[in-house]
């Protein structure tokens, strides 16, 4: 089960539209911003363009992300449908060019679980995670940039049944990802990504659950927003459905 983020087919279309609009505005209005070269996602987007400009010395980025997920959980021979959102703060440390260490923490927002024809409320709860990423290609000349990442995250929450009964709902997520894209000038970097993940859930009434989808595939873009600020929009449309949007600044 994922570190959460609400998304439906409608949300995916909205985020795709936002991506296109931000792309156009950025290309037209900010031609001299920082070079964009990718991202690394523990619990959403971070490690955005300004963290990989190749400057000397250690760099630190702080940011915020909001989004959501829609997925299914296998509980024995049955499946539960999950929809939930989250917001988190991220801190990325770049000790040297190409390599980023990331931590994130925040709150899983209220959502829902549907299982055996019953709807359960998912209550708000804490989330946290950490990740490592390495840029293996810099996107020089005609080549794309490419970045690999390993991330780990946890969420603790509760479910509430229609009769008011509450039960613990915990999950963990181990994720390996590959992002490939190409910077356009010094402004924007559209990319495609694929991630494979494992982990699972513990739901007090029903025991251990696992992901029905152990992967997702999607597209997005990271943007230099002027000065040290950057942004990112991401939509996963195959496997686990997810959409997220983030902003940050680098010191």
Number of helices: 1
Shape: elongated
Helix fraction, binned, reads under 10%
Count of DSSP E strands?
13
Low-pLDDT windows of residues: 1-54
Q: Encode the helix/strand succession as letters.
A: HEEEEEEEEEEEEE
Helix/strand/pairing class, anyone?
mainly beta
Approximate strand percentage: over 45%
Specify the biggest β-sheet.
Answer: 13 strands, antiparallel
Q: What is the terminal separation in angstroms?
A: 33 Å
Radius of gyration over alpha carbons?
Answer: 18 Å
Q: In CATH terms, what is the architecture?
A: Beta Barrel
**Mean of residue pLDDT?**
78
CATH topology-level name:
Porin
CATH class, please? Mainly Beta
Number of domains: 1
Description:
This protein has 251 residues and is mostly beta strands. It has 1 helix and 13 strands; from the N terminus they run H-E-E-E-E-E-E-E-E-E-E-E-E-E. It has one domain (9-250): Porin (Beta Barrel). A hairpin with a 6-residue loop joins strand 8 (166-181) and strand 9. The protein is elongated and about 60 Å long. The model is unreliable at 1-54 (pLDDT under 50).
Topology:
Layout: H1 9-29, E1 59-75, E2 78-96, E3 99-108, E4 111-115, E5 118-122, E6 125-138, E7 145-160, E8 166-181, E9 188-203, E10 207-211, E11 215-224, E12 229-239, E13 241-250
Antiparallel strand pairs: 1-2, 1-10, 1-13, 2-3, 2-4, 3-6, 4-5, 5-7, 6-7, 7-8, 8-9, 9-10, 9-11, 11-12, 12-13
């Amino acid at each position: 089960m994922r570190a959460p983020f609400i998304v439906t087919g409608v949300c995916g279309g909205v985020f795709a539209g936002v991506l296109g609009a931000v792309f156009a505005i950025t290309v037209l209005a900010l031609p001299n911003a920082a070079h964009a070269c990718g991202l690394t996602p523990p619990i959403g987007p971070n490690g955005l363009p300004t963290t990989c400009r190749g400057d000397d010395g250690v760099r630190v980025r702080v940011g915020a992300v909001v989004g959501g997920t829609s997925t299914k959980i296998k509980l024995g021979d049955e499946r539960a449908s999950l929809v939930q959102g989250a917001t988190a703060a991220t801190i990325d440390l770049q000790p040297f060019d190409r390599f980023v260490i990331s931590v994130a923490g925040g709150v899983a927002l209220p959502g829902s679980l549907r299982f055996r024809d019953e709807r359960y409320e998912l209550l708000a709860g804490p989330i946290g995670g950490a990740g490592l990423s390495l840029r293996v290609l810099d996107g020089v000349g005609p080549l794309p940039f490419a970045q690999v990442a390993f991330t780990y995250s946890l969420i603790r929450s509760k479910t509430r049944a229609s009769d008011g009964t509450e039960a613990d709902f915990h999950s963990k997520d181990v994720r390996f990802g590959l992002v490939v894209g190409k910077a356009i000038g010094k402004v924007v970097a559209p990319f495609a990504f694929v991630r494979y993940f494992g982990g699972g859930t513990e739901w007090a009434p029903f025991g251990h659950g696992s992901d029905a989808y152990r992967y997702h595939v999607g597209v997005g873009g990271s943007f230099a927003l002027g000065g040290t600020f950057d942004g990112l929009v991401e939509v996963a449309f195959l496997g686990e459905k997810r959409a997220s949007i983030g902003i940050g600044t680098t010191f």
